[in-house]
Amino acid sequence: MKHGDLDTSLINPPKSLDVHMSPEGLNFGCSDCHTTMGHAVSGSRYQANARDTLGIDVPGHTDFSRASCESCHGLAPHDKPKLNDHVDKLACQTCHIPAFARGGVPTKTWWDWSTAGRLDENGQPIKQLDDHGHPSYLSEKGDFRHGENVVPEYAWFDGTVKYTLAGDPLDIENPPVAINRVEGSPDNGESRIWPFKVMRGKQPFDTERQTLLATHVFGADDTSLWSNFSWEKALQAASDLSGMPYSGEFSFIETTMHWPITHMVAPAEQAVKCGSCHKAESRLAGLGGIYMPGHNGSVWLDRIGWLLVAATLFGVLVHAMARVVFSGRKDQ
Question: Is this structure's pTM higher than 0.70?
Answer without folding.
Answer: yes
